[in-house]
Task: inverse folding
């Protein structure tokens, strides 16, 4: 019997950010294992290549006014999918329903479970840790109900799901400590398109570092500013000719001023092609020191065969890369200097780094891990 699958996501799939990029890989992985697939998702103009053609499409457009959104917020309706999902499941039946991020299941996870389908929730992070780092972006009157209902939704999805998938082992351990009985699996993150083999031309021995990411998003912005203040002077102290490229979307005005006033830093806002910027570097830095989940931007460096220097918080999900000696971590100034020296003196091969990236983060790797999980749970 062909099993019918419904995938529910709150992410705008034509955007290039951590959540959206992760969801694309998840969508493609389930499509590789199920023949009858449907998807509820926020409307985008073009679905190719983000959603495989086999999916039946149920796009939604959020027409609620800001006043209605605020009213809904205080009623616990924090997801624009709430009304659509309930209505859709009254007229459609599925064998497996995937909730992509607990936000997608906000207020409806118990209703989804009542349909009799096997329920799988993919947790992109631990909301407690993620929201602690990012809640300040929202005004107070919005922040408190949003925080309350987001955390409530996460716990409801954990308890109403037959299987809970996480992107890191750390997040799985946190959830397991809350609810020891859960069927929890660290699935990981991965690319949604095939990774093509590439050859690496010899680079100069210049010490050029790069940081990439969304440069107005508070979880990225504050750690980057902290890195410029605390750690970049140490790099220049030990390697006076070192250069740093910071590139990403919509840098804040204060970050622009910091970069302009700091020797050795070049800011590249809103690059047309991020790959071109990463190609200029010899080393990749991820200074993110808050939140949870997997820091997808580290893949920018691995994809180009660059050694990684990152804060301890950002190592989650990259344990395999660290074990091979291609990722170096720090948590304070002394450990930063130690890891910096190890990385630069390691003279690591770009080809070896790229192969490790491909083994861990290719779409096929994600599909194989998912197949093993679903087979173990008797779903396929």
Result:
């Amino acid at each position: 019997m062909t099993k019918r699958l419904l995938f529910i996501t709150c992410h705008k799939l034509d955007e290039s950010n951590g959540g959206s990029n992760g969801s694309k890989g998840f969508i493609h992985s389930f499509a590789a294992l199920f023949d009858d697939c449907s998807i509820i998702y926020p409307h985008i103009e073009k679905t190719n290549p983000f959603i495989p053609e086999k999916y039946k499409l149920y796009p939604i457009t959020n027409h609620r006014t800001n006043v209605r959104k605020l009213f809904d917020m205080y009623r616990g309706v924090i997801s624009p999918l709430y009304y659509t999902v309930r209505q859709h499941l009254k007229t459609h039946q599925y064998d497996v329903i995937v909730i992509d991020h607990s936000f997608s299941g906000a207020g409806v996870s118990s209703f989804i479970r009542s349909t009799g389908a096997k329920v799988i929730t993919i947790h992109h992070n631990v909301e407690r840790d993620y929201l602690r780092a990012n809640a300040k972006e929202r005004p107070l009157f919005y922040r408190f109900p949003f925080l309350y209902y987001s955390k409530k939704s996460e716990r409801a999805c954990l308890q109403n799901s037959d299987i809970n998938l996480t992107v890191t082992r750390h997040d799985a351990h946190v959830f397991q400590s809350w609810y020891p009985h859960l069927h929890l699996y660290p699935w990981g993150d991965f690319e949604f398109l095939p990774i093509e083999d590439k050859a690496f031309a010899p680079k100069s021995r210049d010490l050029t570092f790069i940081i990439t990411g969304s440069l107005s998003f508070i979880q990225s912005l504050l750690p980057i500013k902290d890195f410029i203040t605390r750690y970049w002077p140490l790099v220049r102290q030990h390697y006076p000719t070192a250069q740093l490229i910071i590139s990403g979307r919509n840098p804040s005005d204060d970050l622009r001023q910091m970069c302009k006033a700091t020797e050795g830093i070049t800011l590249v806002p809103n690059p047309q092609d991020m790959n071109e910027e990463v190609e200029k570097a010899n080393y990749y830095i991820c200074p993110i020191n808050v939140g949870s989940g997997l820091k997808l931007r580290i893949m920018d460096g691995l994809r180009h065969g660059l050694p990684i220097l990152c804060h301890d918080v950002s190592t989650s999900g990259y344990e395999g890369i660290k074990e091979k000696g291609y990722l170096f971590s720090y948590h304070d100034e002394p450990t930063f200097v130690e890891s910096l020296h190890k990385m630069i003196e390691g003279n690591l091969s770009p080809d070896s780094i790229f192969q490790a990236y491909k083994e861990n983060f290719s779409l096929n790797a994600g599909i194989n891990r998912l197949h093993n999980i679903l087979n173990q749970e008797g779903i396929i």
